[in-house]
Amino acid sequence: MSDKEIDISLSGVLTDPDIYAIPGMEDAPPPPAPRWKIVHGEESGMGQEGHFLQEASVGDVYCEALAVVGEEMEVIPVYTRRVWVGWASKKIGHAPPIAVYDKRPPDAVWHEGDGLYLPGGTYVVENRMVYVLYQDAAGIRHMVIVDFNKTSIRESGRWFGMIERSVAVARNQYKRQIGMWAATFILTTDQQSNEAHTWRVWHVLPTTKLNAPDGDAYAECKHAYGIARLHADEYMAFGAQSNDVPVVEDDIPF
Fold it and tell me: Is the pLDDT of residue 247 over 50?
């Protein structure tokens, strides 16, 4: 498969880091990034004839940009970035963030049962972005981001442990250095609840599929890794100064 046949763009337009070498594009904001989201039951399009979410169920995984939905998705992780996102209010909704930090703000204070806040009232959420490749029904791979925050943070740590183990297995099998994209995983959801609410969080399952270093998937992942790093760097550089900064979805719908 040639590079021209590989769609690993974040926006469907920008397909290569070299786009920033074009005169006039040096300071372009990062393209909006497709994201995997969880169906909580209040999404527009559910039950609507002809909409890709027409028959979606609570707990399904979907990506609006790709118009795909299902109980689970097969993905390959290629890059991860840990950030702290600042919001004007805890009721995030679809409002853009007002700040993005590469480290936990030193003056942020944890309020038990309420969350992390800056002295001025900015609500801060730790978010672990995982860039993954997803192959659609036509065999084209797309890069999509999975956001792990709040009650999904623990699951991201469990996934990273599985990634480490898969890399070790692949290194032993192929006798060479292997990237984090050594294996394929299943992205799905799990139900959590407390006395007042029930909600869905991310859940990741391992597979037995290894990506051989001389295979197409591995080569695409290496290429996607460079694009993901560039996107994450630009995301941090622009912070909330651009309307193109993607919104981090809260995994708890209340």
Answer: no
